[in-house]
Amino acid sequence: xxxxxGYVGFQDAQTAIVSGLKRMEYRGYDSAGIALxxxxxxxxxxxxxxxxNLVQELEDHPIAPSHQGIGHTRWATHGGPTxxxxxxxxxxxxxxxxxxxxxxxxxxxxAAGLAADGVVLRSQTDSEIVAHLLEREVLVGHSxxxxxxxxxxxxxxxxxxxxxxxxxxxxxxxxRRSSPLVVGVGQSxxxxxxxxxxxxxxxxxxxxxxxxxxxxxTPDTVEVTMFDGTSAVTRPYHIDWDLSAAQKxxxxxxxxxxxxxxxxxxxxxxxxxIGADRQLVLDEMRIDTAHLRTIDxxxxxxxxxxxxxxxxxxxxIEHWTRIPVEVELASEFRYRDPxxxxxxxxxxxSQSGETADTLMAVRHAREQHAKVVSICNTNGxxxxxxxxxxxxxxxxxxxAVASTKGFTTxxxxxxxxxxxxxxxxxxxxxxEVQRLVEELxxxxxxxxxxxxxxxxVLGLAEQLRDAEDFLFLGRHVGYPVALExxxxxxxxxxxxxxxxxxxxxxxxxxxxxxxxxxxFIVVPPKGRDQLHDKVVSNIQEVRARGGRTIVLAERxxxxxxxxxxxxxxxxxxxxxxxxxxxxxxxxxxxxQIATLNGHDVDxxxxxxxxxxxx
Length: 614
Ligand code: F6R
Known about the structure:
With 614 residues, the chain is α/β, with parallel strands linked by helices. It has three domains: 3-245, Glutamine Phosphoribosylpyrophosphate, subunit 1, domain 1; 251-450, Rossmann fold (3-Layer(aba) Sandwich), CATH 3.40.50; 455-596, Glucose-6-phosphate isomerase like protein, domain 1 (Rossmann fold, 3-Layer(aba) Sandwich). It has an eight-stranded antiparallel beta sheet with strand order 3-2-4-1-10-9-11-14, with helices on one face. A six-stranded antiparallel beta sheet has the order 5-6-7-8-12-13, covered by helices on one side. Strand 23, helix 19 and strand 24 form a beta-alpha-beta unit. The longest helix is centred in the last third of the chain and has 22 residues, at 430-451. It binds fructose -6-phosphate. Fructose -6-phosphate is lined by residues 303-306, 350-352, 355, 358, 402-403, 406, 487, 491, 610-611.
């Protein structure tokens, strides 16, 4: 997720663009840049780091005044957060400048085509490739709109592109597929942006662009067409949010916004992972496949929510690869003198990529000659830099302290790793891997279904807002979901919540159950009959002792529903993938309880987003 801006109008373009970027810094903050069209052509300034670095660069090396330009604040996906990889990117002759948000899936084949034509790339990004393709079309005489149309048909993936042509004064052109873009309609000025926060200080009139549309703005006009050149239907609207609501897309908290971003984050994390031959590809997996075939043990190391993702990964990876998997809290790992050898694969999971406990685990593992793969959401962070390979999640920046989209995208990355290992080690047939990857592809839509039907969750939060204790139970992959549900509730609502393996109840925790105690129970899909029936028995046990049962089970599970005081149905998915859906209502429930009780949901007391001390 990056922030993208275009401006054309009567104002000084640099002022309008930089102020827009500052308001979108929450979307990405590892580098920023600006390109302005003036009498010298296109001038670009870009810098790694926060926007403050770009502002300093503009002070040190000013750009001549301009009324037309583009800007970008980056959350790196392809290529680390460096000056060269920062946007905007220029075509080979410097005539066209372009900013991009999203992921170009066929980037490798397009890059190979450009290289064959002698184009030398200046960055490691997929975005620069598009700048070259677009410029080629302009150089053969097409207008910027027509050039954009001819370029987008060559691209696979998700993208918003915004471009300027040094020889087309007074216009900015953009295209959008599966990535956001809005037009801000001013008086003798027009704006393009990833979200309205960028231009809300200048205008509250906006036009939302639809899928596969191209827009051309001039100071007084907005022309929208479809990728195929046909006319497009647009939806103008008035923005009645203030700036802070606009940054949160109208949500009250970043956490709630991030919860609702999960279907897209999961879909983005899957983008580009399937090759032309339908094989799973993990480009970033820079460990020799021959070595991966020799791995005889996997240790997953992580902290907090990421640790819970690791616990779920164990069930999936062991099942698909038959390699024994241990899951270890990062803060405990190196102090127990773990058995790590050159045939151990250490997998670390960290949203921030900076958690000190996890980083120390990486260093310890590498000292023992193990290969380390990290799953991380922050391109260029210390943990991925120090690892042998990295699988990036594409959740975009997670601003709320409580991790939500970080968690579900970590699960996707873990599934991809497990299936990739199964594919190269031959423990699953190709068609089995493909079927599971297709199931992964359908999760995003099913997450939407869950998030579209939350009245029951919100109503229950209202009823239980004063409850002092909560239990969360689950079995198999439902057990880590129970742990994560309890963690979400305690960290933002400061309420006592415990997660237990449902089968362990009878070994002690059942003594806690008393009349009215709210107990969330995650029930596995019915396909896993034994397991399913055992959890249904666990529901009966706690209900018989007066517990109030809130049951999350697959839609139509009458056996589980029979013992539920409250029943939350989930779409039908394979057991191993159920956590991606089951966690959603629990996140929303925690967010709602904390909101109702007046807590600062995004910055809970005593917690920091990134824990850089051991
Ligand atoms: C909980 C939460 C924390 C983090 C943990 C690890 O909502 O956010 O438990 O999951 O501090 O952080 P990362 O993933 O950045 O290593």
